[in-house]
Amino acid sequence: MEDAEQYAQWMNDIDVTINLLAVPNIYSLEKEREALIKLSKEGYNFAIVTLNNNEVIGNCSLGGVNPIHRTAEAGIFIRNKNYWNKGYGTEAMKLLLDYDFNVLNLNNIMLRGYSFNKRVIKSYKKCGLKEIGRRREAVIIGSKKYDHIYGHIGK
Question: Which of 7-11, 52-56, 69-73, 101-105 has the lowest mean pLDDT?
Answer without folding.
Answer: 7-11
